[in-house]
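Structure catalogue
Derive tokens from sequence
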Amino acid sequence: MSRPNWTSPAELRAELEKRWQRGQILAEALADSGLFPLRIVLKQPSTVQISDDFAAARAWVESWQTADGGHFAIEWREIMHRSLGRNRLPAAVVFATAADTASYLRKTRELARFVELAQALPVEFSGLRDWLRKYPLRVLEHAEPWPKLLAVVTWIVDHPRPGIYLRQLSLPGVDTKFIEQHKKLLSEWLDLLLPEMAIDSRFNGLSGFERRYGFLAKPQLIRFRLLDSRLTIAGLTDLSVTVDEFAKLNLPVTRVFVTENDVNGLAFPDVAGGMVIFGRGYGFDALARVAWLQDKEIHYWGDIDTHGFAILNQFRRHFPRTRPLLMDEATLFAHRSQWVEESSPINAELAHLSADEAALYDALRDNCYGRGVRLEQEYVGFALLSERLAALHSASASVEGVQP
């Protein structure tokens, strides 16, 4: 005989544990939403089930008679059975308060701690009350650093857009590492507490924290190699400089190569009037600020996969005349043995690709060559790179030769 589908005391506890994990019980301690008194209806045996297995039904009733009733009240329902007479069945349990429920779950200490942390909020931080009700379990997760978190937020609210490095923030027990570890939470709070004019909405996420709230950020660096010994800077060919410094260089190069793979950048052959910039995936905002690059002949070398063409597409939004390097079907099929599977291909429409580029992108996206075909740029033979560079040089020399 299958187990009767009647609510047991263990199932009641499991249901309340779910409500606790959803934060319902804790949130009720801050604001009465009407959840309490909390009435939970019990699934109980029917008169047919009582007749079929009276012993099981009686054991079920006794399990509720001996249940931990000190924290809840039981509503009973009387039934009349034609052969068994009058019987009382538990119909529902009622918890009067959040405190009763927490005590039943043996979480009285957690509830008290949550209330204590909520009461520690300064009066002027009333804007966080809704956040506390929405994320009560996160409050408990941050119980230990709570005073430091409040201290950091208080300082920033009192000094909006301070124009200093996080390292310069002097608060007892608070260092840069502490802020780095709690940027997500601090950002949520600051968005609720700071006036709109104190938040630069162009920056988001953990990496944008400093710029979003007016701190000085670690300068972005651009690494590049000069591929022509005549263009060295104080004898140096491999340099990393800030974006602002790079924008001022206005180097007398004629041809610029951008490659995502560092080893490719290091091993890139000499090119008269050339330089190679070490790319960083989708992050081209820094290069877009370098006006003198707009007049250069730019070649982008990325992986032959959907993301590689998406990055080329994004790069071309900043530099419309960019040409791809070794990102064509001939290169792909010349390295068939080096193909791997792209783990998470994209399926976006890319508006800044040429017809040939778009056709190759579509073929990769639609798995025309196989599932998730990908050729990483580091597997492209350098002999082929040398051939392409020689062809570029010849084409350039030919154009120059016919000029008047």
About this structure: The chain has three domains: 9-108, 144-212, 221-401. Residues 144-212 form one domain. The mean pLDDT is 90.
